[in-house]
UniProtKB/TrEMBL annotation:
Pfam families: Aha1_N, AHSA1. One of its GO terms (biological process) is protein folding. CDD domains: SRPBCC_Aha1. GO terms for molecular function: ATPase activator activity; protein-folding chaperone binding. Residues 199-213 have a biased composition (Low complexity). GO terms for cellular component: cytosol. This is AHA1, activator of heat shock protein ATPase homolog 1a. Signal peptide: none annotated. Residues 184-198 have a biased composition (Polar residues). It comes from Acanthochromis polyacanthus (spiny chromis). Belongs to the AHA1 family. Residues 29-161 form the Activator of Hsp90 ATPase AHSA1-like N-terminal domain.
Amino acid sequence: MAKWGEGDPRWIVEERADATNVNNWHWTERDVSSWSTEHLRQLLLSVRVEGPEGVCQVTDINKLDGEASINNRKGKLFFFYEWQLKANWLGTAKSGVKYRGTVDVSNLSDENDEDDLDISVSLCKDQPSTPLLDLMKRAGIKAVRRALGEYVHQLKSEFSQGMILPTTDGPKQPPPETAKKNQVKTNKTQISATTKCTSNPAPKSSSSPASCPTGVRIPTCSFNLRETFQTSADELYRTFINQEFVQVFTRSVAVVDGRRGGKFQLLDGSVSGEFTQLVPDQRIEMRWRFRTWPSEHYATVSLEMEDRGDETELKMECHGVPAGEEDPTREGWTRFYFQAIKQTFGY
């Protein structure tokens, strides 16, 4: 992928010569995995419930696998976290008899709300049946859920301080936003391109929309691209139509209404359009344009996804590109869509 500041200027955001992160424009990242590990341990070890059956207490954490990070782009925070946890609990009945069991959490991640967490409790295999298990199912699961919710709250409110710097407009900070996280897989690229013009090429259109009034027929070109992604078709489909995903891989604020007839605008308004047909996990069709193209002129773009098990082949067809604009358009799609998605999400 081209460095920001290189290539066609319509696809990029100008950088300051002094490298100042003006208005928090540049992408910054903080790894909070160690912090998260410690806080998750503290919160889970504080879980204790009591009832008519007796008392249950989480005693130790024997599995805590995952990672977490906070990212800042142009004053907006994105949180990535994914954890699998397993803890032991000790229950003491009113009679004084002790019982041992486990707590499992398999899906603590930015993709799931607190209420959607899968939390299971059980007795160890060598333990006899006891009403304390009912106590853990009734009250223990709720206590664990609250503890994990408190972790997410602390991650977003307390630890994120300092990620957003003061802006030229003052100290105002927007509320945090959570971005979805895709599974990281091995890169594999396969690109092919063909170009076809419907008439003789014409000079590049002026940056002023008035140079080519609406309704005037202009020479246009078409081209095709082919790309292979190491991910499933449903993940790739979601990456193109989900606003949070688009903001992450374009590294800029975007507006994306991922439904038929929904509008989109990204790269600071340099690119805009409308989704005209959406076939989940298979096909995306859209009207698409550069801001510098003749007023109200749109190309038609189709993205067809073929799931091949551990990879997905994407076939792109683009028609109606103003003659003379096919090279920067093709290069922009390759660098700032396809390669950006690969580098950001790892597939």
